[in-house]
């Protein structure tokens, strides 16, 4: 009985202390630390939005994005008010002298001074890249997200795949894929009496998918297209989740979208692992490496193994190769197809550019 009383006498105060400590940590995380950072930023002469409890500027950013996207888009190169409406608002309100905003409980300084920007880019160890949003890791990590020695290692191994001479070998593939698309357009024109309206966006999405699938995976093209479709689904799911109102801890909830993300990620990794294993077995059997990006990447990695040994400090693991393959898609497909659409829009808006481009092509390549 005495022992039980003494245990309670110790346990109750200890539990209270733990609760007080936990409450203090939460208050510090949600309020005290952000307000301290805000005060320090203002003391250094920076201007920006005041910190808002829980969400920071995420709610305002979300509402501004919805409002901007609800309006018709002007046919102009000045896309910042629509594409980055909140940043446009911050710069207009607080000036271009490196204003700050809030991503949850963390301040984000918008660097607009070119001298400072150059200094930051040159001091990669003093200013490392921030950690990716956990959702974005479902798309890819890879070279673009690494810091320091890991970035240096991956850049060294990947670089041969993007050598100019290697890229020239891929030109026939580019030509065939684009030619197939143009043939489809010509058939559509012929069936409509020589004039019709064509929505080029899905065609350009498909042609960039075809080009990347061929150049990234070569003979495994069909499997590459399947990976592309899965990766495209991942992007749509992630943008849907990122566009929702920010709620702290929401990403940890086992929602249907999170389950689909996880399943798609497993399928993508399994497919990539199958392609990689086939190519590695072919290389071990003495076959010459193919001129697709994955083949060149594996060849470069094997050369590093021969020179430096099979150490993770010097070479890429299979997991690393998988992530770089995912980057081929996520960094290349959407950006390229959007750029092609915008190029066509500008050529339509400025017909004289069409004439100048046509003259240059005829001058260089003939009829």
In short:
The protein has 367 residues and is an all-alpha fold. 67% of the residues lie in helices and 2% in strands.
Describe the structure.
Helix content is 67%, strand content 2%. The chain has helices at residues 2-43, 58-69, 80-83, 85-94, 114-122, 148-158, 164-169, 171-191, 200-217, 221-242, 256-284, 293-308, 318-349, 351-365, and strands spanning 100-103, 106-109. The longest helix is centred in the first third of the chain and has 42 residues, at 2-43. It folds into 2 domains: 42-127, no CATH class; 152-365, Cytochrome p450 (Orthogonal Bundle), CATH 1.10.630.10. With 367 residues, it is mostly helical. Helix 11 (256-284) crosses helix 12 (293-308). A hairpin with a 2-residue loop joins strand 1 and strand 2. The chain starts with a helix and ends with a helix. Belongs to the cytochrome P450 family. The chain crosses the membrane at residues 12-32.
Question: What is this structure's SSE topology?
Answer:
Elements: H1 2-43, H2 58-69, H3 80-83, H4 85-94, E1 100-103, E2 106-109, H5 114-122, H6 148-158, H7 164-169, H8 171-191, H9 200-217, H10 221-242, H11 256-284, H12 293-308, H13 318-349, H14 351-365
Antiparallel strand pairs: 1-2
Helix pairs in contact: 8-9, 9-10, 9-13, 10-11, 11-12, 11-13, 13-14
Please give a handful of descriptors for the protein shown:
about 375 residues, mainly alpha, 14 helices, globular, monooxygenase activity, metal-binding, Cytochrome p450
């Amino acid at each position: 009985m005495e022992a039980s009383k003494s245990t309670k006498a110790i346990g109750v105060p200890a539990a209270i202390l733990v609760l007080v400590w936990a409450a203090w940590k939460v208050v510090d995380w949600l309020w005290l630390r952000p307000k301290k950072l805000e005060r320090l930023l203002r003391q250094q002469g920076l201007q920006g939005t005041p910190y808002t409890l829980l969400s920071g500027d995420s709610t305002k950013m979300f509402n501004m994005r919805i409002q901007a996207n609800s309006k018709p888009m002007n046919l102009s190169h000045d896309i910042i008010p629509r594409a980055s409406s909140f940043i446009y608002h911050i710069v207009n309100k607080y000036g271009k002298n490196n204003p700050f905003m809030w991503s949850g409980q963390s301040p984000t300084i918008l660097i607009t001074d070119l001298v400072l920007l150059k200094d930051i880019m040159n001091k990669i160890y003093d200013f490392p890249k921030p950690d990716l949003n956990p959702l974005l890791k479902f798309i890819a990590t890879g070279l673009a997200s690494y810091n320091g020695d890991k970035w240096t290692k991956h850049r060294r191994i990947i670089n041969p795949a993007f050598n100019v001479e290697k890229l020239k070998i891929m030109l026939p593939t580019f030509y065939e894929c684009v030619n197939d698309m143009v043939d489809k357009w010509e058939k559509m024109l012929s069936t409509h009496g020589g004039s019709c309206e064509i929505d080029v966006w899905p065609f350009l999405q498909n042609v960039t998918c075809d080009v990347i699938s061929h150049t990234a995976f070569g003979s495994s093209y069909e499997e590459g297209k399947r990976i592309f479709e899965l990766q495209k689904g991942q992007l749509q799911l992630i943008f849907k989740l990122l566009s929702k109102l920010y709620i702290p801890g929401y990403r940890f909830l086992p929602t249907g979208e999170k389950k689909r993300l996880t399943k798609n990620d497993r399928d993508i990794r399994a497919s990539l692992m199958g392609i990689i294993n086939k190519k590695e077995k072919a290389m071990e059997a003495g076959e010459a490496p193919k001129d697709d990006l994955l083949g060149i990447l594996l060849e470069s990695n094997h050369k590093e193994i021969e020179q430096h040994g099979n150490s993770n400090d010097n070479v890429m693991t299979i997991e690393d190769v998988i992530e770089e393959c995912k980057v081929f898609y996520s960094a290349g497909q959407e950006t390229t197809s959007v750029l092609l659409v915008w190029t066509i829009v500008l050529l339509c808006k400025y017909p004289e550019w069409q004439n100048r481009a046509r003259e240059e092509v005829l001058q260089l390549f003939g009829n």
